[in-house]
Amino acid sequence: MTSSGATDARKGGADARLRVRLYVAGRSPNSLAAIGTLRAVIAEFPAQGIAFKLIDVLQTPERALEADVFITPMLVRVEPPPERRILGNLSDRKTLLGVLGLEEANHG
Amino acid sequence: MAEADGPMTELASLRQQNELLRQQLADAAQALDAFARGEVDAVVSPGSVNPVLLAESQAQLRRNEDLLRAVFNGSLDALLLADDRGRYVDANPAACELFGLTRDQLLGRSIVEFAAPGYDAAASYRGLQEHGRMRGEFPLVRLDGTRRVLEYNATANVVPGLHLSSLRDVTERLAAEDALHANRAKLEEAQAIAHVGSWTAGFLPDGSVEWSREGARILGVPAGAPMPLTAFFEIVHPEDRERFRHMSHEAIERGTPADIEHRILRPDGAVRWVHERGVVERDAHGRPLRFVGTIQDVTERHVAVEARRSSEALLRIAGRMARLGGWSVELPEARITWSDEVCAIHELPHGTVPTLEQGITAYAPEHQGTIHAGFEACVRDGTPFDLELQIVTATGRRVWVRAIGEAERDPSGAITRAHGAFQDIDDRRKLEDQFRQAQKMEAIGRLAGGIAHDFNNLLSVVISYSELALDDLGPGNPLSADIGEIRRAGLRAAALTHQLLAFSRQQVREPRVTDLIEVVASMKPMLGRLLGEDIALTVLSPHPVGHVLVDHAQIEQVVMNLAVNARDAMPLGGKLTVELANVRVEEAYVGRPRDVAPGRFVMLAVTDTGEGMTEATRARIFEPFFTTKEPGKGTGLGLATVFGIVQQSAGFVSVYSEPGHGSTFKVYLPRTDRLAEAAVSEAPTAFLGGSETILLVEDDDLVRAVACTILRKYGYHVLETSNGGEAFLVSSDFSARIDLLLTDVVMPRLSGRRVAEQLAPQRPEMKVLFVSGYTDDTIIQHGVLEAGVAFLQKPFTPQMLLKKVREVLDADHRRAEEAAR
Questions:
Q1: Which end of chain B is more exposed for a tag (fewer CB within 10 A), N or C?
Q2: What number does CATH give the domain B65-169?
Q3: Angle between helices B701-713 and B798-820 in degrees, nearest 10
């Protein structure tokens, strides 16, 4: 898994409870918005040890197709199962936190 | 899921499945929402290599819509959307204001309701739908009846079924344009009447100039089209182009208002004069924006002005050359106008406006009464005047003028003005004076010459007898002293008559080519004695001077007389300078008499530091017998002699003198290119007597007697006769040889010359010696002795007579001796 299009988020390590992949289309506006929002949430919940991979479909479209991702930006929760997906620029914070199993009250 | 599990397990499983489905549903709903909101970027499809980027998101669409709405509402132009039937479905605030209605009132109404009577709005609307676009003017009548003119721009089906119109109220603009148009028409008419055009120009390098119709007409170029500035420069006449460029430059750089008259070379080849005025318009920072101005065709005026100017110039030139001006006096206030030349004659600045009194007092005091009376009579009863008077100029010079005047009357016969001419006639008067002076001198000269003839005979007798008596008495006799006095008086009288003859140009001259420097140098010791110790003599001849053709004795007399004159002007001592120089006398040289041709001269100047002379004295100094010395101290012949000798030598004399500042006499003698001749050395005559036979012819008894006495005393055999006839008889009766005919020249009936001619054939060996106190052209041509003719000037002393006789008798011997050597 060392393709040039992917970047492993080392934070949290391989044993992290929460693993996500974000599929983006280069520096398109919605993709940039999604990346920014996800990073902000990861920084907001450091205790959760969220690991994420960024996949650029313009660089490696085949990896998107492997994961049945047809439209970007797309966030895929890989761990814990079941797999959950959020389409769009992650502007709906409530949905994002819900899918990631995080609660507003948890952070202090 | 195992079927063996219990219902609880199944229920949990179902719940779990349900939860999963619910989550998937939620995810799907979220995905749809996100898609709808345009939060997606790209679609990855298995069929194509590259993902497809979505160009516009829904959000952008929405923003565009907002933008469009803002533009629609914010537009200053009225914007209206109408449906297919022409009913308004949307209108912006500007439209509402234009129609004078609220949006609600406006929507649902049709364009047809607002068209002015006679305008088929329905047809226009159909035309719009047919053609897709349309523009034009629309006469609007508001519901309250007010009328406006609109400019519209309509597009059909901006959205299917909707048609957009953009409307603008141009009522004021059209009115302004109408007014402008009317003004421009008036301006053009005015320009055409006044022949004044106008222009507006941009600036170089690619500026252009726009001409009004009249401006274009003046230039002869088509009206309407702007012309490049470079093309206009081509129309400016080549000779005026530099001046024109300079003017433009000054106007742009310095803000000088442009004002220039120049020629143009029209495309049809015509050359016209135009007058242009212009100013540079500038922005708030002073930067030039454009050049605006007027152009006027001034060719006719220019031609007229030129013609007048050239005729005035001619008049002025003529006036200047003739020293002739004009004057006028307006009555009754006596306002004087002087032309430039009148001012110049008075040596006053041009434009001087004198009073009548100043005009009168400009005349010499002794002439003021005359001009005053003349002018008074002229303005009183119209008597014209024509006077020659002297004025005193602003610098104090006296100048002869001719003042002519006449009166001018108005229709009623009253004298309103006097006017006339004023001419400087000083030169003419001076010439006339010169001529009068010359005539006077000539008359005096003739008189003096006549007297001198008789005097010379008497003096010959007086001198000769006193010498003979002195010889006879011997030195010890008490009578010797008295007779010596008689002899001296006779010699003085002889010198006087000699000078008189020199003055009257009847002296016999023997001109030789002479170097004046040598003459003056040889005279220096004698001049020193003459001047005395109190007068310092300086001779200046810095460069060699040319030769002149003069009689040595005469030129010595000139120098002597001038030196004596200078000495007498310096009774208390001073300096006398004799200067020699080559000069070129030009045509215009002041003081050159008319009969002396200009050319190369040698100038001999004698300058003293004495009393000087007044103008009145200076005018008369060359007159014989004019003297400023006490009676008995001067003969009054010294300068007259100088005058006569110089005139006889084809030269002239000029005098410069001021009272108290000494005098300078300048003698000008014409140069000759011939080389100087060595003076003929006279052979010493040791023995004055002789035994030859002499035939003497002399009509004056006393002279004949004394001549006989002298000659016989010294051993000569003398045949004595008193006229030509007697001489022929004596000659024919005398058989022996006659060696010499000694004859007077001027005798009644037969002149000495004729006597000599008639005796010559019979006596070829006989020599001839003429004697005269007076010369005429029987032996003298133009005052010069003919070659080979011997001559003795009366009065003579016995010594002179004997010496000359011996000389003539021995001439052949000497020639023979010289030939033998």
A1: C
A2: 3.30.450.20
A3: 50
CB atoms inside a 10 Å sphere around CB B533: 7
Please tell me the distance from the alpha carbon of residue A4 to that of residue B565, in angstroms, as a whole number: 137
- Per the structure, the complete domain to which residue A90 belongs is given by 6-100
Residues shown for chain A: 108
pLDDT at residue B156 is higher than 90: no
Beta bridge mates, B546? none
The two beta strands, B398-409 and B415-424, are antiparallel
In whole numbers, what is the pLDDT of chain B averaged over residues?
83
User: Under an 8 A CB cutoff, do B39 and A89 touch?
Assistant: yes
Chain B closest CA to A19's CA: distance in Å? 18
Q: Which residue would you say has higher pLDDT here, B506 or B68? A: B68
B661/B241 Cα distance (integer angstroms): 60
As beta bridge partners, residue B655 has B665
Count Cβ atoms below 10 Å from residue B599 Cβ, excluding itself: 11
- Record the tokens describing residue B194, joined without a space: 């006044």
* Cβ–Cβ gap A88/B43 under 8 Å: no
Taking 50 as the threshold, does the pLDDT of residue B51 lie above it?
A: yes
For residue B189, count other CB atoms closer than 10 A to its CB. 12
- Least trusted range by pLDDT, from B79-83, B550-554, B603-607, B681-685: B681-685
What is the arrangement of strands in the sheet containing B740-744, beginning at the earlier edge strand?
Answer: B717-721, B693-697, B740-744, B767-772, B790-793
Opening angle at CA B815, ends B812 and B820, nearest 5: 120
Q: Which of B293, B266, B269 is nearest to B279 (CA)?
A: B293
Chain A residues touching B49 at Cβ < 8 A: 61
Cα B641 to Cα B47, B307, B448, B654, distances in angstroms: 147, 59, 12, 14
Interchain CB distance below 8 Å, B44 and A71: yes
> Residue A35's domain is classified under what CATH number?
3.40.30.10
| Residue type, position B495, single letter | A
Q: What is the mean pLDDT of residues B503-507?
A: 62
Burial of residue A76, with CB atoms counted within 10 A of its CB: 0-12 exposed, 13-18 middle, 19 or more buried:
buried
Residue A60 within a domain:
yes
Both tokens of B270, joined, read: 């015509």
Could you say which DSSP state residue B487 is in? Answer: H
Lowest pLDDT segment from B42-56, B166-180, B265-279: B42-56
CATH 1.10.275.10 holds for B323-424 = no
Q: Which CATH number fits domain B509-672: 3.10.580.10, 3.30.565.10, 1.10.10.10, 3.40.50.10490?
A: 3.30.565.10
Report the 3 state secondary structure along B106-158: HCCCEHHHHECCCCCHHHHHHHHHHHCEEEEEEEEECCCCCEEEEEEEEEEEE
From CA B459, how far away is CA B773, in angstroms rounded? 10
Q: What are phi and psi of B685, to 5 degrees?
A: -100, 105
Give the closest of A25, A70, A87 to B34, CB-based: A87
Kindly state the DSSP code that residue B678 receives in the 8-state scheme: P
Domain with CATH 3.40.50.2300 in chain B: 693-820
Nearest to A82 among B20, B31, B42 (CB): B20
CATH 3.30.230.10 correct for B175-304: no
